[in-house]
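User: Predict the structure for this protein chain, please.
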Amino acid sequence: MNPPSRLRRFVGVGSRFLLVGGLSTLIEIGVFNLLVYVWGWDVVAAKIVASLVALVNAYIGNREWTFRHRDRRGRVAEVALFLGTNAVCTAIGAALVWAGVELVAASLGRAPGAFAVNAVNLASIVIVVMLRFVLYHWVVFRVAPKA
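Assistant: Here is the predicted structure, written as structure tokens:
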């Protein structure tokens, strides 16, 4: 495969990943705000639950559309890798939200408002999306090894 076609394929996979991720992000932000501002949940617990809800959409979209051309090693192994990867990414996202909200609260001298909390949440999502793409591409939905 020549370099331009490899780049074109990588850009195509990246674009599909971003579309699936964009929808998953909207789901995650919606659930997060519902849990925090309607039901009064703690931001870290809400972040974890919202991430898990969005995870269902992310798996289906990435397996059946983004990485459909990749090796199917077996559904159980693939789901286990997907869940493990996302457990790590969810923990990192929750830690980033906690640290960001604490940092904003310390700098303001009071509890941050909805705008600041959502800005921190969105920043954590951007960081974790980049990590997820790398892990999905090289670990979860990898190319089958050549025989």
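The radius of gyration is 17 Å.
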